[in-house]
Amino acid sequence: MPVQSLCRSLFLIVIFLVPGWAQKTPQPSPKFTQRVQKQITHEILMLPYYDEFDVIGFKLDGYNVTLFGHVIHATLKSDAEHAIKKIEGVEKVNNQIEVLPPSPFDDRLRLQLFRAIYGYPALQRYGVGSNRPIHIIVDHGHVTLEGVVDNTGDRNIVNIRANQVPGVFSVTNNLQVPGKKKR
Asked: What are the domain boundaries of the chain?
């Protein structure tokens, strides 16, 4: 009898010490995941100060969301977190968005890059609307291009235009073309 009590006690200890044995959190359904991804995307795009100089991405892991990217204003970082926390079914938000340091030099480059890209005749169609598809991230003179363009030719033109702006130290072109794999 004492051996059975000891075994039962050890079994209970193991259950409470080894995560995942006793209580496994059920994984969300694909329908839930799709709904939440759509809502997160919508909430990000609807943030009042989110524009072509910011980029916010997310990773949905079960019921938890990790936010990442770069923004110019700290309020945008906190606004994004608050908006995502309100979505039904989201349990935790890990906000890893980086706030870019204030810099008059980078601000000047942002404006010049915007004009060089969106003002170029072959690319002007991307400048229509409030949610422009090409995001220009500038950090200490280093430029990262994020977003989606229609074809490889446009991707290359954006890259060339960005590299021609005086004062740009480097350009990382992460622009995606639908149907093409990331380079």
From this structure: 30-99, 104-173
> Which H or E run includes 86?
none
Angle between helices 104-118 and 152-163 (to 10 degrees): 140
So what's the pLDDT on residue 23?
54
Residues of the chain short of pLDDT 50, as ranges, are 1, 3, 5-18, 20-22
**Could you tell me the CATH superfamily of domain 30-99?**
Fe-S cluster assembly (FSCA) (3.30.300.130)
Class for domain 104-173, per CATH?
alpha beta
Helices (H), the chain: 2-17, 30-45, 74-85, 104-118, 152-163
Phi and psi of 99, rounded to 5°? -90, 120
- Return d(Cα 134, Cα 115) in angstroms, integer: 12
pLDDT in tens, 28-71: 888 989 999 999 999 999 999 999 999 999 999 999 999 999 99
